[in-house]
Amino acid sequence: MSKGNEPTAYREMTAVDLFGKRIRVLDLTREIGPDLPVYPGHMKTNFWWHMTHRESKLRIGEESRFQGYGVKGIVMCDHISTHVDAVYHFNADRPDLTVESIALETLITPAVWIDLSFVRPRTNITLENVKGAMARAGVDRLERGSSLLYYTGAGDRWGDPEAFVTQYPGLDSEASYWILDRGVVNVLTDAPSTDNPADLSYHNHTAHGERLVIHTEIVSNINKIPKHTGFYLLVAPLKLKGCTGSPARILALWEE
């Protein structure tokens, strides 16, 4: 490829023209790889060369100008890195609500984000904490059909796998039910789980299982969204048939 045809380098924030408007886009997605943090008990990720460019070139033949193609094999958990938890993940009675069944209306929504990083790791986030964070962010209510992102600061520990998977807070039952009863369709966090790792009651997972609402974990860059309201989320999990979750690409979008 000539120098003039080099593709644009990846940037976590950019601007695009969409439907006649200039839209800012921020990538909220963590990368996936063998050496990155994994929730305790979940499968680690592995990549390997299934076929190298040189191996495929040997099949094609040296007379072809084509350089050959490379293909990698992948083994990973359906709850790795930035990922969506389908309802079936926390409600064993709903095998119909696997990740490929999630409606687009749930994945493309208006959104708000709040800062809960003042809550100590390995404690429960209370309803009082949530309402206080909303007030400080100027969020007066949670709209039905919207998504709520909450920032704990856990993402700052991404480079320390042991700390990342153990040092964060989680939503308690009262806060979880209150959020869901407002009509929120997706709750997203930068932490490895929406639940406190020091409390095995899994308050938030239980609430989502009862209310049949998805949530999303290990979301990056929440605190880099320059406004607490007035933006949209696009969440794109893979359509993994029958799976309880999927890695997802997540974008925050707002008009420039």
Structure, described:
By secondary structure, the chain is an alpha/beta fold. The chain folds into 2 domains: 30 residues, no CATH class; 173 residues, Putative cyclase (Glucose Oxidase, domain 1, 3-Layer(bba) Sandwich), CATH 3.50.30.50. It contains 7 helices and 13 strands. Strand 1 and strand 2 form a beta hairpin. It is globular and about 70 Å long. The model has no long low-confidence stretch (mean pLDDT 96).
CATH architecture label name of the largest domain: 3-Layer(bba) Sandwich
| Side-by-side strand order of the widest sheet | 5-11-10-8-6-12-13
The succession of helices and strands, N to C, reads EEEHEEHHEEHEHEHEHEEE
CATH domain class of the largest domain = Alpha Beta
What's the helix count? 7
Distance between the termini: 33 Å
**Tally of separate domains:** 2
- Rg is 20 Å
CATH level-four homologous superfamily name of the largest domain: Putative cyclase
Report helical residue fraction. 10-25%
Number of strands: 13
Q: So what's the overall shape?
A: globular
Topology-level CATH name of the largest domain:
Glucose Oxidase, domain 1
Structural class: alpha/beta
Q: Residue ranges: pLDDT <50 for 5 or more in a row? A: none
Q: What's the short story on this structure?
A:
With 256 residues, the chain is an alpha/beta fold.
Topology:
Blueprint: E1 13-18, E2 21-27, E3 46-51, H1 53-60, E4 71-75, E5 83-85, H2 87-90, H3 104-107, E6 108-115, E7 124-125, H4 127-137, E8 147-151, H5 161-164, E9 170-171, H6 173-181, E10 186-189, H7 203-211, E11 214-217, E12 231-237, E13 245-255
Parallel strand pairs: 6-8, 7-9, 8-10, 10-11
Antiparallel strand pairs: 1-2, 2-13, 3-4, 5-11, 5-13, 6-12, 12-13
Helix pairs in contact: 6-7
